[in-house]
Amino acid sequence: MEKTNNYKCPACGGGLIFSPKTGKVTCEYCDSSYTVEEIESKNKVQETADSGEQEKEADIGNEGAEWSTDSLSSEWGSESGSMKEYSCPSCGASIICDKTTAATKCPYCDNPAIMEKQFSGALKPNCVIPFAITKKEAVARLGDFYKNKKFLPKLFSDKNHLEETKGIYVPFWFFDGKTEGSAVFRTTTTSRSRRGNTETITTRHFECERTGSLDFESIPVDASKKMPDDLMDSLEPFDFSAMKDFSTAYLPGYLADKFDDTIEECTPRAERRCSESFVSSLRASVSGYDSVSLKQSNITFRNGKVRYGLVPVWLLYTKYNGERFLFAVNGQTGKVAGTLPAGKSEVFAYNARNFLVSLAVFASLIALAAKFVI
């Protein structure tokens, strides 16, 4: 069984969690707070002391057992590759979780547990964006998201209850590099002339070629198969100026996953985003035409570098009419993304109002026309 780690308060020994409000690690019991650097230093001292102690395990025999254990098996088959077992550093309980889990809570003592081995070697993130939005603020942002939605069922916003709210550090690849190349655009200009009752429309067609280069930095692509790509894309942008060098001291109190989408799998998404930005930049230089459309482009990538980091996301689950809805809140900016249900009665009422307005306008026009005829 692999060991986990957690951060304990040097003052009282209580569990520590990272506070988005203060940017410090805070004790849940005595309210002591420490900077990330302070708690890292204290944790290293404690690890050194612990390494000198020898652990002994009791040998439990089964002499005289009357119960058959023939049906028990330690072979998990295909499931073994997706699960891992850890030991809680606070109470010693076993924690069984997904193999990509890097930070969680013990289901027995509720203390944070960090699987530090998940961050060792090549798997260790380069950077992290700490949480700046609290759980309470995330719930409030979701409430604001409900407001002024025309087709949202009233019962959904009035009576739905959040089933689960959890803060999670989502793994991301950040791509840095440079694009260069060219693009050809089809363009047209249109002019009109009139002679007597005849109007002539003249359309001229051109091709405009543009070349250039564009540097890009921190193009984000989420590296978790469990997280919907469109949901993560909708939470952008993140403020990368607040990015910190990675430390496990930012993780207590939150869940965290390591990547399971490889760089090779995510590269096409990053290159597609860079290509679209590059073509859009070239397109902006084409002006003075009535229409512009892309004909072809030729783009290459240079000096590419990839970094591995974690970004903060609040996930909120709610249920309505037996269906589960997932919403995500950017843990740094508070931006909300998710799909809301559309109520049949609200859609019907909206269409009915539009029909009555249209009918009233039509009736007014008929009455006005009749008045002129008379």
From TrEMBL:
UniProt-annotated stretches for the region Disordered: 40-78
Gene3D superfamilies assigned to the protein according to its UniProt record, in alphabetical order: RNA polymerase ii, chain L
Biased composition regions of type Low complexity, renumbered to the chain: 67-78
Basic and acidic residues bias (residue ranges): 40-59
Domain of life according to the entry: Bacteria
Name of this chain's protein: Uncharacterized protein
